[in-house]
Design brief:
It is a single chain. By secondary structure, the chain is α/β, with parallel strands linked by helices. It contains twelve helices and 18 strands. A hairpin with a 5-residue loop joins strand 7 and strand 8.
Length: 375
C-alpha cells in the first residue's frame, strides 16, 4: 500500500533549521504485514528528544529513515499467526519489541532485549527486513521498529500493547515512551518507597513522568529542577513539592532533605546535568540516568563517592519496563486520576508541521507535542 511518512535523508546539526527542513513528507510504499506483524493506522505520535538525536547525528542510525517511536493507533490488518490482537483494537506502540526468549527477556529485563536492540540499530523489524520503500525503489529504514511519523506503520506484534478504546489516542501515545521511561525509572529501576526523598533533574516529558511516578510512589519530598519556569510550574501541578532552577538546585535539595535526596533522576541527556544530580544525592543515595547523551560524551565523578560514601549510579533504559505489564497499570492509574499523563501534552499539530515541532522541542518551548498524521 501507499502511505505518507516523514523521512530523514541526511543528518543536520543546524538549528534553527531555516530553509533546510530535515524531515520531508514523502509518499512511500509500505509492505503488507508478515507473520507476527500488524498494520496500524497511526492516530497520534509524540515528538521526543530521541527523534531529534537522530536528526542531529547524536544517535547514529541508517539513512534514509522514517522517524517516530512514540505513538498510538488502530489496528487495520493482522498478519498470520497473530491471535491475541484484532482489527479495530487500539494499541500503544513501544520502541523495544522484546522477543521474550533471549537471556535479558528471560531474566525479566525485556527493555534490554538483545534481538530487539540489533534490529533497532539496523533499522529493520523484529520479523524481517524493512517494509518501507521510497519512490526511487530503495528501502527506507524503520525507526525503533515503529516509524510513527506516518499515516500507517507495520510493526511487530511485540511492539504493540492493546489499550481500552475509551483512552484518547492522543493521550495513549505518551504511554509508549515518556511514561514508560520516566515513571518506570521511579517505580521499576529505583523502586522508590513511600517517604523516600526524590529529586528530578530535567523536566521534559520523561522528567515530568518521573515526577508523576514519584507522586504515585508517595515519595516525599519530590523536588524538580529545570531552567524553564513554566516547566517548574507544571511539575508542581503534577506532584512536585518544591522546584529549583539549576543554579540553586544542589543547595536547595540538600537544605530540604538534610544532606541530599535519597534518589535523584537525570532526564536531560547532558553529562553536566547528570553530575549535578549525582552531587545532589545523599550518602548512600542512588542516582538514575535516563537521558541519552551523545556517545562521545564522558562523565566526571568523584571515585571515592562509591566505596567511600556508598553512592550508586545506575542506568535506566525505557524505565526498566515490561510494556505488556506496565502500560495497562499506568493507564489504570491515569483513569483513577493518579497519573495525569494528558497534562504532558503541549500542543497538537498536523504531521506537515513536524519540523516546527522539532524546533519547538529543541528550544525548550514544549514538553510533548503530538502530531496527528490523519489530520
Amino acid at each position: 500500500m501507499k502511505t505518507v511518512a516523514a523521512v530523514l535523508r541526511a543528518v543536520t546539526q543546524a538549528r534553527p533549521y531555516g530553509e533546510s527542513k530535515p524531515m520531508v513528507l514523502e509518499e512511500v510504499e509500505l509492505g503488507a504485514p508478515r507473520a507476527g506483524e500488524l498494520l496500524v493506522r497511526i492516530e497520534a505520535a509524540g515528538v521526543c528528544h530521541s527523534d531529534i538525536s537522530v536528526v542531529d547525528g547524536s544517535r547514529v542510525r541508517p539513512l534514509p529513515m522514517a522517524l517516530g517511536h512514540e505513538a498510538a493507533g488502530v489496528v487495520e490488518e493482522v498478519g498470520p499467526g497473530v491471535r491475541d490482537v484484532a482489527v479495530g483494537d487500539h494499541v500503544v506502540l513501544t520502541f523495544v519489541p522484546s522477543c521474550g526468549l533471549c537471556p535479558e527477556c528471560a531474566s525479566g529485563r525485556p527493555a534490554l532485549c538483545t534481538p530487539a536492540a540489533a534490529v533497532n540499530v539496523a533499522g529493520t523489524l523484529l520479523h524481517g527486513p524493512s517494509l518501507l520503500t521510497g519512490r526511487d525503489g530503495k528501502p527506507i529504514a524503520h525507526h525503533l521498529g515503529i516509524s510513527a511519523f506516518a499515516r500507517h506503520a507495520v510493526i511487530a506484534r511485540e511492539s504493540a500493547v492493546v489499550v481500552p478504546r475509551d483512552v484518547p489516542l492522543q493521550t495513549a501515545a505518551l504511554f509508549g515512551c515518556a511514561v514508560l521511561t520516566g515513571a518506570g525509572a521511579v517505580l521499576n529501576t529505583a523502586s522508590v518507597r513511600p517517604g523516600q526523598s526524590v529529586a528530578v533533574f530535567g523536566l521534559g516529558g520523561v522528567g515530568l513522568a518521573s515526577v508523576m511516578g514519584a507522586a504515585v510512589a508517595n515519595a516525599w519530598p519530590i523536588i524538580a529542577v529545570d531552567p524553564v519556569p513554566a516547566k517548574r510550574e507544571l511539575a508542581l501541578q503534577l506532584g512536585a513539592t518544591a522546584v529549583f532552577a539549576p543554579e540553586e538546585a544542589e543547595k536547595g535539595v540538600k537544605d530540604l532533605t538534610g544532606g541530599g535526596a535519597e534518589v535523584t533522576f537525570e532526564a536531560a541527556g547532558v553529562p553536566a546535568v547528570l553530575e549535578a544530580a549525582f552531587r545532589a544525592a545523599r550518602r548512600g543515595g542512588m542516582t538514575v540516568a535516563m537521558g541519552l547523551p551523545h556517545p562521545s560524551r564522558t562523565l566526571t565523578l568523584p571515585a571515592l563517592a562509591f566505596a567511600g560514601l556508598g553512592q550508586s549510579l545506575v542506568g535506566s533504559y525505557m524505565g526498566s519496563s515490561a510494556p505488556q505489564r506496565d502500560i495497562p497499570r499506568y493507564v489504570a492509574l491515569w483513569k483513577a486520576g493518579r497519573m495525569p499523563v494528558d497534562r504532558l501534552q503541549s500542543a497538537t499539530l498536523p504531521l506537515a508541521r513536524i519540523n516546527e515541532a522539532f524546533e519547538n522541542l529543541a528550544a525548550g518551548a514544549a514538553v510533548r507535542q503530538v502530531l496527528l498524521p490523519q489530520a
